[in-house]
Design brief:
Helix content: 40-55%
Order of helices and strands: HHHEHEHH
Largest sheet: 2 strands, parallel
Structural class: mainly alpha
Number of helices: 6
Amino acid sequence: MSSGNAHKVLGIKTQPHAIISSPKACRGCVLALNILISLNVPFGFAFFPNELVALPRCLMGRSVTQLVSYTIMPRGGHFAAFEEPQLLADDIWNFVSLVQKMK
């Protein structure tokens, strides 16, 4: 699939360049969702420095009531499972361990 057809596959009615060319718009969507959605389950977040858009920890408190772990990763980005699989796996195991200790 070419990037020119991505909007058709995703069902987005806009120009394909508009999807990725406006991080502020994406960040606005995330912040809007932050206000509307409340997570009441144990939650872990891994912040990868090369991610396109990420929610800072200070804003998570508005919707995440049980933030168990927030890890700032040294490298990696949007495709963290492919880019840094060991970092991600270690963080997931750490999160599971913390949740198990809560029981």
